[in-house]
Amino acid sequence: MACFTNAVNRPDLFVRLTRSMVRVALLLSVVTMGQSAIAFTPFRISEIRIEGNEYLDNGTILDMLSVRTEDVIDDAISNDLIKSLYESGFFKQITVNAEGRILIIRVLERPAVSEIAFTGVKQSDKEGLTKALRTLGIQEGKPFDPALVAKAELEIKRQYLARGLYSATIATNVAPQEKNRVKVSFTVNEGEVAQIRHINIIGNKFFSESDLLDLLNLRAPGFFTWYTSADQYSRQKLSADLEILRSYYQDRGFIEMQIESTQVSITPNKRDIYITINISEGQRYTISDIKLDGYTLGIADELRALVTIKPNELYSALQINESQKAMNERLGKIGYAFSNVYGNPDIDKKNKKVALTFLVDPGKRVYVRSVNIIGNTQTRDYVIRRQLRQYEKSWYDSDKIKLSRDRVDRLGFFSEVAVETPEVIGTNDQVDLNLSVKEKSTGTIVAGLGYSTTDNLSLQASVQQPNLFGTGEFLGFQINSSSTSETYTLSTSNPYFTKYGVSRSFDFSSQTSSAPVGSLSQYNNATNSTGVRFGIPYSETGTVFAGISYENVRIDATSTSPVSYQRYVTQFGDGTSATTTTYPITLSWQTDNRDSGLIPTRGTLQRFNAEIALFGDLNYYRAGYNLQFHYPLTRKLTFSSNYQLDHGSGLNAKQYPVFKNYYVGGLGSVRGYVGSSLAPEGVTQTDNVGGNTRTYANLELLGPFPGSGNDRTLRWFMFIDGGAVYNEVPTSLGQDFHYGAGFGVAWVSAIGPLKFNWARALNPRSTDQTQYFQFQIGTVF
Prior knowledge:
Layout: H1 2-8, H2 11-33, E1 43-44, E2 47-51, H3 58-64, E3 72-73, H4 75-87, E4 91-99, E5 102-109, E6 112-119, H5 126-136, H6 149-162, E7 169-177, E8 181-189, E9 195-202, H7 209-215, H8 225-228, H9 235-250, E10 258-266, E11 272-280, E12 286-294, H10 300-305, H11 317-333, E13 340-348, E14 353-361, E15 367-374, H12 381-385, E16 394-395, H13 398-410, E17 414-420, E18 430-439, E19 444-451, E20 457-465, E21 474-482, E22 485-494, E23 503-514, E24 523-537, E25 542-557, H14 563-572, E26 577-582, E27 585-592, E28 603-613, E29 620-632, E30 638-650, E31 693-704, E32 714-726, E33 738-749, E34 752-761, E35 773-777
Parallel strand pairs: 2-5, 6-8, 9-11, 12-14, 15-18
Antiparallel strand pairs: 1-3, 4-5, 7-8, 10-11, 13-14, 15-16, 17-18, 19-20, 19-35, 20-21, 21-22, 22-23, 23-24, 24-25, 25-26, 25-27, 27-28, 28-29, 29-30, 30-31, 31-32, 32-33, 33-34, 34-35
């Protein structure tokens, strides 16, 4: 008790004790922080010495400092210096001392991340995971913070949950490396992907559940969902499907349709998922009136004509959006890049009518300041720029920008092409055009294989590089080989031989052929040729071509050879062999407005080719016309057709060269028959050497493969083909036609487009060679 009273009566002792404790706490704090507690008299620095660093070089640390030699330093500047070094995140301990005029900074670095490794990652993208970790602060070359490990594991787990891998587990190992570095390894046990077992839609009255489920990309396991992964749940896929449902209703009059709720339940073993979608359809509305309001720039009639929806029609969000888009594009053509057209609906619930007013706000007219190309690491900048039709320092034109994007995309060098037009900061009438691309591997290996029970095995293979060394030039080598012929072709093309887009191509070819295996006829043909061709574009989708070639041909025949070969060697040789040299001129024209070269669903392709030989030993002409037509019958079904007509004839009383004959049969013409096996009327298989006239047609109905959802890369098709080859011009179209029909599967795979055909010859002659199964890679028809 006395002690207590004595302490209370001596406040000066209490104050001294308190001050001592504060000093000790401050000292411990400084030692813990690693900061210098040494005070020194201000001095002018003659040298800065860095000590203790292992992986950061002295220059890097010196760049972090706020002082330089010949600067004066004191206690306050020293403390600021220490604080700035800590804020860099590279150090866990810093000491500042002085020896004379030498400033000594001793550091202890945090360990740096030398490598980030993933083990067991199959379903996810390592690059995407690395990018996600980078946003957390875990990155190669950066200081390692142990506190971020738990966050990293949660982020990786979140990435897997989004892919439906609910049982995925992640373990982290941090291994010390030399020079104060660490290797951070993430071991992932992905588990099994949770599969959708059932999707249930509740609240639908007007449309059946089966029709609505057919719209969705997500679906219960089916025959081919192992390829499409449509039975694997993800939040992104479900969100997209809900938007598909909403759009489907709102495009058919149900303006008030709502997704009221969505329940996703998973079984305890985290392997099965059940989805329930609750919807409210609402009432069905029709359009009562359509008006145009706002600042229309004197083109109100043009804008009004772009409105596709009409009074008394069902309300359609799709048609309204398309009308808005069309009007914005029209305003964009004349420089109004930021126009805004909004369809404002006035809903009359009592009468189930909607009065629609399109409000037009054109904004300010702008022009493009600069065009920036982003993402091309291999393709040279000028290869992309020469495809652009929107130029710098000119008025913004939405049509030209879209055309520029499409032209770059049609090069085939990029997997992604995107365009952005950000405003130039500080202005209200300028934008930049940023065209970003993602390059892909452009070299291709294409092959086709055919097999016949009559020992006809054929192989077609080619190696092509359409973007040689990033210059946009083409180089290709092709081989066609069978039991009776071999062809080797080397081609090269420069699509911009001139700055105006005139192309130049060279072709070198060597071909040998002989009579079919088992034939009583005997003949041999050897052809060597080289040629040059120029292409002149006359529109954005059309090109004309002109060229000249050199051809040297040797034909050997015997008394058992077909009559056409015997006549040929008699007219141009000594009766047993003939060698000719000629210089044919080629002319051709092509226009292509299909929506895709690999998976077309709409548009046409037209080609006309002509070859005429007036100089050399041979005089002849030959011409061909090809038309492809694609039309979408429904959202999923496409009708496609292909028509071909060719004819050739001799000139100046000279025989049409037999080696220029056309053939029909097999892949690319009439499926169900062996390739090139169909003979003209009255000609036996023994004497079949084709004919100087041919025609054929292919009709196909294509749709998505069952279980593949809306994936267009895997499709089924049914077809019917018809064609014939003649020695004379037929008197009627379809004369002596051979027909084949069947079905198949088309797949745009990683190695190229594949087609598997099962065909039946419908009207074969007794001498025809039929073929049930055929397979090809690299062509559409």
